[in-house]
Amino acid sequence: MPAEIRMPRTPPPELGVMLGAARMRAGYRLREAARLAGIGHEYLLRLETGQRTPSRSVATVLADVLELDDAERAELLALALADAGRDHPDRRVPGSPIGNRAGVHRHHPD
């Protein structure tokens, strides 16, 4: 059976801008935010530059790591893909969480 060919789904430019601004507001460098989210820094850069759309599981973890407000979280999750990346039906591993959620540390500047 031939593999299904999917068309690329490009996010709106404001999504990347919002993610980059949220990361800076949280006080994280790109590599640190990516590590906390359990994704590669190149992938996070592609998200922030509007080259990629996150899967729903990546979006959920990023929302937690970047401490998105309710409106930002809703926007990110509305644009996230339910059938891409780690959420693609052929890649799902039952009971397997994304990243190291126990290792997520909140950054609170005092």
TrEMBL record:
Annotated Pfam families: HTH_31
InterPro entries noted in UniProt: Cro/C1-type_HTH, Lambda_DNA-bd_dom_sf
Listed SUPFAM superfamilies: lambda repressor-like DNA-binding domains
Superkingdom of this protein's organism: Bacteria
CDD domains membership: HTH_XRE
Region (Disordered) residue spans: 84-110
Biased composition range(s): Basic and acidic residues: 84-93
UniProt domain HTH cro/C1-type: residue ranges: 21-73
GO molecular function: DNA binding
Entry-linked PROSITE patterns: HTH_CROC1 (PS50943)
Protein name, as recorded: Helix-turn-helix domain-containing protein
